[in-house]
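re: ur question from earlier - yeah i can do the single chain one, its not a big deal. heres the input i used so u can compare w yours
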Amino acid sequence: MDSLVTANTKFCLDLFQELSKSDEPANIFICPLSISVAFGMISLGAKSSTADQINEVLHFNEVSQRESTETDISSKGSSKETQGDQQEMSKLPNQQNTKSLSDGCRDSDSCFGKLLKKLDRIKSDYTLSMANRLYGEQEFPICAAYSDKVTEFYHTTIESVDFRKDSEKSRQQINFWVECQTQGKIKDLFEKDNITDSTVLVLVNAVYFKAKWEKSFDHEKTEDSPFWINKNEQKNVKMMRQQNTFRLGYIEELKTQILEMTYIKGKLSMFVLLPTFPAEDSTGLEELEKQMTYEKITEWTSPTIMCEEKVDVSFPQFTTESNLDLKFILQKMGIIDVFDEAKCDLSGMSSSSNLYLSTAVHKTFVEVNEDGAEAAAATGAGIATKSAIPFVTFNANHPFLFFIRHNKTNTILFYGKVSSP
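and the output i got, formated as tokens:
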């Protein structure tokens, strides 16, 4: 399963790089795991170049190449729970990731099934609802074998709707389901022009997350403070503050602090990467964004870099919403055929040769306040700081990156950039 987490992280950073190409600074908030799960479902029924493109862009083709080696290494000295997971994994078919459904399940599908089960275990401490679903035109029959595998590994179903005769009713039905799954935070996922009588297959992914900080902020200490969008522009924001013990590190080569703020019970954490605000006219994030890789994230969040410090934290309240056209973005990243009626091969999903993915959107919402976070989404070496002063200052009064991670699996659930709270 480690290699699937690696693949998901690589895709997350690739997607973030694509979204960051705009010249205008903007807030970004994505749930990479929900997108990976959603396209894992599509890939399960895809063949030929349609499957190849998805597997390459989302790094699914690396899962089977790495899993056996990583499992052997990680099994040494691992916990009983981890060993049990590995023994369960060893019983699953070891097929090449690019094989079709008829050849048996792929490693990525098996690992997704295990990962989703692990995430399901934390529901007693957090509100984390991942809901993925495919809606297909009822005239296109879905293969029973494909439907069974989607239920087994992705814990969802394929829904038939009447796009051709009643596209508006179908749109409202899908939007209502998403709104319910995200406890009302995401409404109107699909606008009227997204779904028409020519729509044949719609991919929906919805995630709702709400958690309390392990060390909450005192509401009475929140006050209006300036947030520097760039060297010459600032705005007043609600700045939260607390002095407490946190894991903190310093990435010397990038002049960047990294802070971990855990959620209750410590199973999830928000990591905040805050570069030194530069003298020149920039946000200070440009070089950090370029340097972000799976290997760097692993290194920067390790005990080599991070250790417990007494920290004076100033952190802004913020709410961010975004609506991404995944079809447009993923086409630029190399997933083309699945959106093309003439080229798409979803023969593992349906016997119909006319099935293709009409649209895919990813609408996200996050709110961070004194109590914790509420979020929703619809598909170099460094030395840890050791200070002689009582508290190290961590003042997030300028643009920063952050991600929310499931600590047991190192899975990045949410990833974002705050340019202007």
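Residues 317 and 369 are 5 Å apart (CA to CA). not sure if urs matches, ping me
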